[in-house]
Amino acid sequence: MKDNRFVKGRLKSTEYSVKGAYKLITTEHSIMVQFFIGIAITIAGFYFDISATEWMLQILAIGLVLAIEGLNTAAEKIADFIHPEYHEKIGFIKDIASGAVFFAAMAALAVGAIIYYPKVALLF
């Protein structure tokens, strides 16, 4: 039964969101890899003492990749539920969703390169 009270309803929505994030991180291999990379890059941020602006860009990049990957996973699960056997149009839809993840990952890679290349280059 739906709770129409504002605060209680928002808290329930947050509970579902946290459960969904946990399910993504614990069951989907692509999210597991990207989550680990996000943690590693966060540790690198502390190690290299990046600026507040660099932190903001890094957090946005990590969040973007994880969010788009979550949407990609949802699209794949829905497509597989609706049409479990291979279908050319379902494959096309899944490829497009995966392409969106690729764009997000490339943008995150560019952000990471801009932030960390100068810092790593100073080590050598």
Structure characteristics:
Helix Hairpins, mainly alpha, 124 residues, single chain
Structure, described:
The chain has 124 residues and is an all-alpha fold. It has a single domain, classed as Helix Hairpins (Orthogonal Bundle). It has helices at residues 6-27, 29-47, 52-82, 88-121. Helix 2 runs antiparallel to helix 3 (52-82) and helix 3 (52-82) runs antiparallel to helix 4. The mean pLDDT is 94.
Brief account:
The chain has about 120 residues and is an all-alpha fold. It has helices at about 5-25, 30-45, 50-80, 90-120.
> What is the overall number of helices?
4
Distance between the termini: 61 Å
The CATH architecture comes to Orthogonal Bundle
* Main CATH class: Mainly Alpha
* Residues in β-strands, percent: under 5%
Overall geometry = flat
Kindly report the average pLDDT value: 94
At CATH level 3, the topology is Helix Hairpins
Helical/strand content category: mainly alpha
Low-confidence stretches: none
Radius of gyration: 18 Å
| Number of structural domains | 1
Largest sheet: none
